[in-house]
Amino acid sequence: MQDVLLPLFYLPPVAWFSVFLEENNRVLLEQYENFPKQTYRNRANIYGANGKLSLIIPIRHEGKRTLKDLKISYAEDWQKLHWKSIKTAYQSSPFFEFYEEQLSRIFENKPAFLLDLNLKALEIIQEILKTNHPYTLTDGYIDKPEMLDFRNSFLAKDQTVLGLNAYYQVFSDRLGFLENLSVVDVICNKGPESVTYIKSLKI
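User: That's the sequence. What structure does it adopt?
Assistant: Structure tokens below.
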């Protein structure tokens, strides 16, 4: 077994999940870091009709920058927008109708904190994938971790091509394969084969 330190994302990208679900990884999720902007901690990329579409959770600016203390802004109905965007993107995918009810539960309630929303989303995604990979939350900031540290990995603005195996995507016939989107993309397009695909990736 090896210890890995992962950031806690919103509907994480496929590469994140390949590390999270690796059977030999003992996962620690970071909750005490200072919140970095423009990362997957409060955003997810899906495949829309015009290509990559970013879904961003608005954060309340109250001076607190520790991830566990960050509050979500509900000044705009972003939940309705995110769910509508996901439905529009994937309603014609092979498996969306099988998981629609479970996915919609991510947007049912209005948790005050981003941490709670991300943990709820992770719980539902694991339920859909039929996985139950254990994890623990950090109990303080680890400045110099003696473990694999992925806190600065999986950057939203990173254009690095990972060379992930291509799979069918709803709009790939027009726009080509987009790699490392939210795990939602794999779930809707590959269904029960999603876990096998994710675990086959070597990040």
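The chain is about 30% helix and 15% strand.
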